[in-house]
Amino acid sequence: MYDTEPHTPKSRRSPRSAGRTALVVTAVLVVLLGTGVAGVAAFNMLGDDEPAGPQAAPSATGSASADASPTGEPEPKVISMSATGDIVMGNAPGRLPSNGGKGFFDSVEKALAADLVMGNLEEPLTDDTGTSKCGANSTRCHQFRAPPSYAAHLKDAGFELLNQANNHGYDYGKAGYENTQEALEKYGLEHTGAPNQITVVDVEGVKVAVAGFSSYVWSNSLINISSAKKVIQKAATMADLVVVQVHMGGEGSDKTRVRPGTEMFLGENRGDPVKFSRSMIDAGADLIVGHGPHVMRALEFYKGRLIAYSLGNFAGGGGTLSNNGRLGWGAVLKVSLTAEGEWAGGQLISTYMNGAGKPTMDSQRRAAGLVRDLCKSDFPKTGAKLAADGKISPPTAAS
Positions of the region Disordered (predicted)? Predict the structure, then answer.
């Protein structure tokens, strides 16, 4: 279902969003309006390694009730969202998981549960198209693909929206990219990441717009911040909440730190993560979900909005992604926001890729421990506070 009519959000809350009017976007705008997304209304803050079951949505003040507040005003509507980093389920034809991939996400399925479940799909779901980005004698080029039927595994795990804005989206050319979209749609899954694509889903009565960015021509540009801001400003006229999925930053086990400035990798401009993320919030985004470096990075609050600079490797079936040390650590980011974009709670649930590359719950909570230290070192004033169980809190005085 397609909807090109501007949406007028309820009181778009802060001075940064003043004057939001519909912008003229010259390129074709693709808007995917999903049906109501089923899921738990919110998530418990976990004190152990087992994710919580369904419960009532917490209010911004911590109440689990939707009744009137002590002032007599109704509690604000709250929805929960979860997100992951890079997902590669295998590499056809010879490096696919056992049992046809069935049960690939079983260990983390409960952790993913939220009103809107998102992931970064780091491979096409396609048969061989005859088009390959890697030359026959290439030694430093990596390309991935999984059978189109593997979209069913994403559906079974609870995913509802997948990002294609990354360096592997076009591994098998335009046909592979479009085949991926068809495979996702067959199983009722939304996708985002094409140029000027804003995917709008109805989540428990709250409209959420999601746009994907990377440094590649098949996605919204991470490099052209002026153009990116126009996409987000447009998205803000169409939904209550705006989420950015972004593939940014250098790659490798030594790339956990976030510093100001442009990051390069293999001669490619991978963007300025800090400048981009903060600019998107200035333009109207309510949550930034980063991935790309293959390692965890810090969480920062900027103007009350959370920036996750990288969620690491979530899945690398068939050994497609290294699970050596920090490269094997990932996480499920869980965030609850009011319909006005205000923070209502969050948690970082640690995972790791086992020997088969499957995402697995991590009782040692290594990802959360690393992120806790990175928040302190990289953003001493604006970094998120993480409790022992991964519960996320804003700093006392975020800028």
Answer: 51-78
